[in-house]
Amino acid sequence: MKIWISAGELSGDIQGAELLRALRTASETRGMTLEAVGMGGAHLELAGQRNILRMEELSVMGLVEVLASLPRIPGMLKRVRQALAEERPDAVLLVDAPEFNFRVAKAAGALNIPVYYFIPPKVWAWRTGRVAFLKKHVRSIFSILPFEVDFYRAHGIEVEYVGNPLVDLVNYDHIRHIAPEAGRIGLMPGSRKKEVESLLPAFSAAADLLLREFPQVSFHCIRAPHFTEEYLRSFWPGAAPLHVVEPEGRYAFMRTCQCLLSASGTATLESGLAGVPTLVAYRLNPLSYALGRKVIKVKWISLTNLILGREAFPEHIQQDAAPAALAGRIRSWLREPEHFSRMAKDMEELREKCGGPGSAERAAHALLNALKKHCM
To answer: What are the tens digits of pLDDT across the range 353-376?
Structure first.
């Protein structure tokens, strides 16, 4: 069996790779061999995918940033259409990245190649009209968020909740014994250049403010695999020393932090599952933010908060992500440790809601079963 996996950003590359490994194992138990081609990054490549396109050509965030990337998209889509026609995969599996993957779905449909979606777009949050597109072009959805299953079923879309792959990646049972070091603050400024360039200078200024009052604090930036240490340091203008942490063993390192300052995104669910109190920050191009406010239909941007249905992790967005506001929030945490105790209870509930390990295996079997049902 040949499958095309299309991942457009780091989190999708990581989770798509875990699914691919599980697919190989599940295929072997059914007496099948599996070949994977498509678009991804280093993680899918290490898992054995032959990347015809690289996800780094696409990885952007925000409406204005997406618009700026549009000139590249026609050329990429032409390459996708040509490769799909040449490779003739048995199925296309889309992973997140709807702005590009919707176009991949149409290209696959034109060639009568069945399409499935792992980590579907957040249509429950905005652009609900895209549900009609999914219903027309996608055979089945494999969901990793428990609250979205009812939404898709209400719209007549075949969906299966497979659990969240981050439960396996974080592996809380293996790191729960690690105690935090007082005053160690972890930094996760995002996996996209626009995020780092916007947030890391603000984190640096907040660090300088905190260091004046708490001389024992230290700041540790967990490096995304595709960013160099030199690149990250170029956006840290302040006087507070910055320690750059390698991405390997990131979850164990998170546990050593008393708290984290993080960009919104997958990282905030990682930190929640790891049991580390997190302050969520995000800044967009002002036009992207203004447009987003008009269309976003959810109260929070952090996945931890969305799953729990309340603000367990404070969110500082746009002007509220200014250095003084960020430093003020963390200052209150360091002065009043009861905040950490409250969040510890929230994170325990989060782990319960996300379910047990084995998400990739469940998703692999769900995909193979769907292929058998629809195509074989």
So the answer is: 998 899 999 999 999 998 887 655
